[in-house]
Amino acid sequence: MMQTSSDGPPPGTESSHRGTVIAFVSPKGGTGKTVMSATAAYLLARAGQKIIAIDADFSTRGLSLYLLGSVHDIDVQDENCLAEIVLKNIPTSKIDPRRVMRGSEINLILSNQDLWRGGRPDGDFTSADVSIDKYLQRFRELCDVFRLRYDYVIIDSRGGYDFSSAIPAVIADRYVIVLEADKVSVDQVHGFQKAILEFASSKNLSAKFSGFIVNKVTFPPENTTFSDGLRGLFGGRTIGVIPADYDCIRAYQLKEIPNEKYLSSDFAYYAFRTIEQLVAPEANWKKEAVDAWHKLYRQVHSEWSGRVWLRRLQNLSIVGQALVLLTLIIGGFFLYDGSPWLGYATYFGFALLASWVIAAAGLHVQNWLLQSGKSAEYRTISFASGGVCMILLVAFLAWGANKFSNAPLLARISEQQELIASLTQRSLALNDNLSRLIFVSQDLRRAQELTQGVSARLASAPQDDKGADFLRGLAGPLKDAASTVGDASKNLEQLTQDLQQNKRR
Fold first, then answer.
1. Is 79 within 8 Å of 110 (Cβ atoms)?
2. How far apart are CA 115 and CA 133, in angstroms?
3. pLDDT per residue as tens digits for the range 190-210
4. Quick check: 19 and 114 in contact, CB under 8 A?
5. Residue 433's CB: how many other CB atoms inside 10 A?
6. CA 108 to chain centre
7. How confident is the model at residue 408 (pLDDT cuts 50, 70, 90)?
8. Taking 80 as the threshold, does the pLDDT of residue 8 lie above it?
9. Rounded CA gap, 250 and 35, in Å?
10. What is the pLDDT of residues 444-454, one digit of tens each?
11. At residue 272, does pLDDT exceed 50?
12. Rounded Cα distance, 141 and 92, in Å
């Protein structure tokens, strides 16, 4: 994984090439500065740039331990380490960076020789033999040499303010402040910047501030409220906003580069965009290098966008469950209403439920593959397997729909529908007859009233009325007719009521 760099011109060789020195600094520890430094070195190296990283944090040795990974049995020489280069005044011609393979070659100046024992105390650089001014001078010489040899010099400094963080900031071509989106970090930025500027002024130097990288945010990266606040307070631009990401934490714990191990993570995508804003390949690189950078971007964007769509589908699963439940509830009414279409709706609801179960299982498998950092080949096989399962499910559902359409239950529903249609026609016929019977009933009622009127008149007529004698002879038959009409009217009313009840049924 790692060996001494030997190819290329020796340090100090004159050349027209001039690289760029970028220092990552932070007003406090724990902001993700080391991960950003390592990621910048990794991405630039993958794009074909010649990179050297310098671990200037003698306290935690974070960049050295992080880039070396799990390698412990290496022979670290004084010429490989920044502390020994300064303290032992090693000539620049003998400086020998270590070469780390992280997808591409990254040259590395370690912090100090006893990496796994502990760091170097600040007192070692402020003694009578070694002063801060001497450290500043040696660090400047080192960066001047590396500018001639490499495209980019990435410096990871100590978190918080002291000379080991101020010197890289004032020597670098530009320095970047990595901070978190909280009030403590914002409060610390003012004093931190002021201290760097005062240190630069005391050494007759100028510190070139490039901007902020806001890391571990819990709001959408597209939200510019915090960035606008930083600009209003400190006047600097925000180079990038990177969301908090469990994959990044997991990668750091395993000493893995997030953009190598978890290419689909939010950190991988937004860190790439941040480094792109920092180095501006379109403006500063040759066409071949720009093409290589764009190819790398397409890989990152493809992996990241796939995971974004995966999250959206997982979020929509709740909506899918609600729709399936609603379909089942509506379809359940077909047992009461007798509609075959609602029966089909019930079947369709169960089909959706089965599809959702398979899709949810596939999404969980994909999510597990992404989180475990499996290769793209595994994820492709998973997608293909999910597609085959869905095709088989569609075929099974089509077969089931055909069987369902010929089921006895639907046959009974069809028979009931035919019966309902027949009863409806009979009801319409009864309705017509009912109207006629109502008219007949009304005529009978008037006849009964007329008969009763004639009988009453005869009863009141004088006995010597000859005209009434004839009518008196009809009194008996009229009385019988009135009784018959009354009975017929009652029977007609009862028949009318029965018809109305049958009609409602």
1. no
2. 25
3. 899 999 999 999 999 989 999
4. no
5. 12
6. 36
7. low
8. no
9. 12
10. 666 667 666 76
11. yes
12. 8
**CA 242/CA 250 separation, integer angstroms:** 16
- pTM equals 0.67
Q: Residue 108, SS3?
A: strand
How far is Cα 286 from Cα 374, in angstroms, rounded to an integer? 34
- CA torsion angle for 478, 479, 481, 486 (degrees, to 10)? 140
| Tokens read off for 200 | 């630069």
User: How far apart are alpha carbons 423 and 505 in whole angstroms?
Assistant: 9
The arrangement of strands across the sheet holding 174-180 comes to 2-4, 98-102, 104-109, 51-55, 152-159, 20-26, 174-180, 209-217, 238-243
pLDDT mean over 84-113: 89
Chain position carrying tokens 């200037």? 56
Structure tokens at 328: 């089942």
What per-residue confidence (pLDDT) applies to 352?
67
Do residues 147 and 19 make contact, with C-beta atoms less than 8 angstroms apart?
Answer: yes
Q: Report whether 6 contacts 138 (CB < 8 A).
A: no
Give residues with Cβ within 8 angstroms of 265, minimum separation 6: 245, 247, 248, 251, 258, 304, 307
- With contact defined as beta carbons under 8 Å apart, do 71 and 320 qualify? no
Task: Render 215-270 in DSSP notation, one character per residue.
Answer: EEESS-TT--HHHHHHHHHH---EEEEEE--HHHHHHHHTT--HHHH-TTSHHHHH
Rounded mean pLDDT, 250-273:
90
Q: Which two tokens stand for residue 426?
A: 């009979």
Structure-block tokens of residue 52: 């050297």
Structure tokens at 432: 């017509």
